[in-house]
Every structure is written in C-alpha cells, then in structure tokens.
Design brief:
2 domains, 10 helices, mainly alpha, Arc Repressor Mutant, subunit A
Length: 227
C-alpha cells in the first residue's frame, strides 16, 4: 500500500490541534475527503495515527474542526456598512471559499460540519447585518435561511457537476446525437450556452444573489402587514 505523501519538507514541528487541522485541510485539498483517514493524515504529518487522538477526539471531531477552519477564510460582513453591499460581499466570499474546498462544501450541506466558532461568527455577522439593516426578527429569519440555502446550494451544484468545462462539448455532442433537437430548440440553445460557459457562466452566481437581495430589500420596505 503506498504511503501518504508528507505535507511539506519542513523541520519537525510539535503536534497541536491547529497543526492537525491544517494538515487535514491541506490533505483534503490535495487528495480529496475519501482518502482522509487518521492513519493517512498521521503519515502525512510524520507521526503515528494514534498520536492525533491527543488533539482530536475522533474522525468526526477532525472533520468538524477542519470545516470550521475553512469557514474562517470567509470575509465577514462589516458592521456600520450598507447592509446589502456587505451581505453581497460576504456571500460571494463564502461561495468562493466553498469552491476552493469542494469537499468542505459537501460536508457543510450534509450537516457533517460547520458548528464551530467560525460558523457561529459568520451566522451572527449575517444576522446582525440584517437586523441593523432594518429587518424584523421574522424577516431576518427568512432572509438568513434563503441566503444560506442559495449560497450553499449553488456551491454544491457547482462542485458536484460531473463534467469539466473542457469535456462538455464532447458530452453534449454525444447527448444531442440522438436527441430530438427540432422538438426542443430552446433546450438545445441552453445546452450550447453551457458548452461555452461550463456549469456556471460568468456572473451567474452574482445574478441570482442580486435578485435575492433586491427582493429582500423590497420586502423589508413593505408595510408591516406585508400588503
């Protein structure tokens, strides 16, 4: 069985929870979540796998910690700035972070991570931005969950798409070879657009995000009875 590659050729650094989590982050980015085991991570860090248990309780604790480390990369909305611009900036930052670490996106959406300090800070920053922006408690609840589902859902759909952009022309050509194109001209046109742009075209994520934010602003400004 091939040994896991060691993470860098650095002098031996004492093991700590921070080093274990950052090592797991680097390992998952390089090799994917499926290959991340306690034994493999230990080999990559140059220690026995059992040594990791002094710093993480188990595999679930490791995953929880490394997902929270990923979320620490998100640029949080800033207090005192316009709410819509800050939510937009924070959502785009979150989306980009999840695309950088696609395995973390899958864990976060499935409930396998994201209940640590970084997640709490991110949630509180978004909720606070909405409340300071004039949203009621009820509207803040709705707005937070709609934005959360949108960002995570588009990220998950993007990282889970089974084809690379450079392969899409071949895949589409095979699909369309026996497809009744004359009966579905607009679908064929849409497929052609994806061939040029990939699963997401430039600005697609921002387009949907702006629709959400504009709608939230309109709803916020409705009379209290919502009519």
């Amino acid at each position: 069985m091939p040994r896991s590659p060691q993470l860098g050729a650095q002098p031996r650094v004492p093991l700590s929870r921070e080093r274990v989590l950052r090592g797991a982050l680097e390992f998952a980015d390089a090799h994917g979540l499926a290959l991340l085991t306690m034994r493999g991570l230990g080999e990559a860090l140059g220690v026995e796998g059992m040594a990791l248990y002094k710093h993480v309780a188990n595999k679930d604790d490791l995953l929880e910690g490394v997902v929270d480390l990923v979320l620490s990369e998100v640029d949080l909305p800033s207090p005192g700035e316009p709410w819509k611009a800050e939510l937009r900036r924070g959502a785009i930052s979150t989306f980009e972070v999840l695309l950088r670490h696609p395995w973390a996106c899958q864990l976060l959406v499935s409930g396998g991570g994201g209940s640590g300090p970084s997640r709490w800070r991110l949630m509180d920053a978004i909720l606070g931005t909405l409340r300071r922006g004039g949203f009621s408690v009820e509207m803040t609840h709705h707005a937070f969950h709609v934005l959360d589902v949108y960002v995570q859902g588009v990220a998950l759909g993007t990282v889970s798409f089974p084809f690379e952009k450079e392969d899409m022309a071949e895949v589409a050509g095979t699909f369309l070879h026996e497809f009744p194109t004359a009966d579905h001209p607009y679908l064929v046109e849409h497929i052609g657009y994806h061939i040029d742009t990939g699963v997401l075209g430039e600005g697609d994520f921002e387009f949907g995000l702006d629709l959400l934010l504009d709608s939230l602003e309109r709803l916020r400004d409705l009379p209290a009875n919502g009519k």
